[in-house]
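TEACHING EXERCISE
Course module: macromolecular assemblies
Task: Read the component lines below, then compare them to the predicted structure of the full complex.
Student: A.B.
Group: 4
Components provided:
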Amino acid sequence: MKIAVIGTGYVGLATAAGLAEFGHTVVGADKDAAKIADICRGKTPIYEPGLDEIVTKNISAGKLAFTADVDKTIRDADVIFVCVGTPQDENGRADMSQIEDVSRTIARNLNGYKVVVEKSTVPVKTSDWIKRIITLYRKDETPFDVASNPEFLREGAAVSDFLNPDRIIIGVESEKAREMMVRIYAGFSDRIMVTNIDTAELIKHASNSFLAMKISYINMIADLCDKTHADVEQVALGMGLDPRIGRQFLKAGLGYGGSCFPKDVKALMNIGGDLGVNMGLLHETDKINRERIGRFLEKIRKALWILKGKKIAVLGLAFKPQTDDIREASSAVIIGHLVREGALLRLYDPKAMDNMKAVFPESPGIAYCEDACQAAEDANALLVVTEWEEFRSLDLARVKKNMANPILIDGRNLYDPAAVRAQGFEYYSIGRK
Ligand code: UGA
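Instructor-supplied answer key:
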């Protein structure tokens, strides 16, 4: 089977390289020729641990190639994974224009039976549109099938998640498509779940929204802890010890960001709303998440009172550790507020500074620093916004010496309050005393 992967973002690159790693022959295609040229030189456009290595390794082994010739890639393929972006439009719905565009390109190049696989996160019922577009634009009656195979990889762990999936969801409508899709994942027969297409599409949105809801839930509890003597870390642990609840995704903090949860919660909210279903639970999930920044700013004001002219060090800009991605990152919203109030910011992140410079260029109010210690120089307060491992092991005594006032406001509960206070810091965190 020849496999095409259209789109070379996070999901496309991990899918192309991962399928090649499984032993398939894969061509990744993207109409952005400059991006393709970089990837062919072994330079993927994103920071993702292990990705460059498996891309380079499989290109050298002749199992993986990249090209800007999308038409030919489609003509040559038996199975086409569609991995283009489905960003959020101005109404909070998924913008499906790239999916429609690829569907038309597939229709134009349909020269034999092919399975068209939705890998991007799409609203339930998208497959009906893909089928309709390909049927409308194909030149003849050449048959094809659409399948849904949602991806569950996390940024920062994309390669290992793709290579060791918990589950492989395959939504199909024909036996032929089922057989081909199951063959692609032959090494994981114990983890495959085959459903109809609507179900597979919904599993993806329902999973992400559930995880987002879990985060908003614990953040709501954290607010309650802030007003009482309870400790949110211990509440989360006590809850999570019940296997029906589980310990994961109960980390209170600045809320969820990234290219998936904020967008997917809103998309599912809108899909349900359009179909007349009460999606109130997700409206609250989203609202609680947006309110996280306000709560954090309250803590900063409580510590510093007037922000104008105060020097504030910000550690962490990426939406989470192990990535350079700043899409929907809390850092950007926090920085925006602090700059408007006249604070002087000193920013540091191990990987995401170039991306942030494109949003907030260096200016009299914004300096980018070489490391955490430099960011702390002469600062009136230090904020932890992303929980990078290198911040956990920071030499806090040295940091404190650099600061004008030893005030640490930890948005990710990275430090042990007693240990930090013992070093002489005034310490604020989320849902803990
Ligand atoms: C998420 C899902 O975890 C993946 O399964 C899914 O495939 C992916 O979206 C997608 O749809 O493509 P990702 O956005 O990469 O993955 O990152 P997560 O690790 O899930 O974290 C999302 C956000 O939640 C981050 O901002 C993180 O800081 C926050 N978070 C996570 C918390 O605030 N608390 C937690 O306990 C866990």
